[in-house]
């Protein structure tokens, strides 16, 4: 099934809360950095997939929203791809550079369009590739939430409080993480 489709919205809410809530337990800086770096790598893969496979755009956006792209450059590229798709303006990867002014983005889009000539081999597997990325993103989000609970458990233990409820939440998140599979994001006929 497609049960994790809310994953992207959870990531989005988590990121917004992280930026706006002052009294929430925050992640240790190292865990936050690990999440941000992992998230950026996965977002880059999703952008590559959408640049190379027009049909991947609606597939990715059936699970994500534009604001779920945390990296500013990738959000900009995703926005252009999404708008082109919405307007049914199919564009080849090498022609996409004309939609960007930032030299880093132009270089990235150019590199993907030119250096990914092997795309013939993955053209029919873009959904599996994207599903792998979506599962990684969901696991990263769950890892971040697990780390938050770990921090709350440590604080509660230091203050002599009861950790039973937090331990149950921690176990529930661990169980959710173990159930995350790329196949959860794929239509039934592609499961293999």
Question: What's the shape?
Answer: elongated
Query: How many whole angstroms does the radius of gyration measure?
Result: 19 Å
| Number of beta strands | 0
* Helical residues, percent: 55-70%
Largest sheet: none
Poorly predicted tracts of residues: 1-25
Strand content: under 5%
Order of helices and strands: HHHHHHHH
**Overall SS class:** mainly alpha
Number of helices: 8
Distance between the termini: 13 Å
Mean pLDDT over the residues: 79
Folded structure, characterized:
The chain is mainly alpha-helical and 192 residues long. It is built from eight helices and no strands. It has helices at 7-20, 29-52, 56-61, 72-86, 103-115, 119-122, 126-158, 164-179. Helix 2 (29-52) runs parallel beside helix 4 and helix 2 (29-52) runs antiparallel to helix 7 (126-158).
Helix-strand layout with pairing:
Layout: H1 7-20, H2 29-52, H3 56-61, H4 72-86, H5 103-115, H6 119-122, H7 126-158, H8 164-179
Labels describing this entry:
192 residues; mainly alpha; 8 helices; elongated; disordered N terminus
Briefly, what is this?
The protein has helices at residues 7-20, 29-52, 56-61, 72-86, 103-115, 119-122, 126-158, 164-179. It has 192 residues and is mainly α.
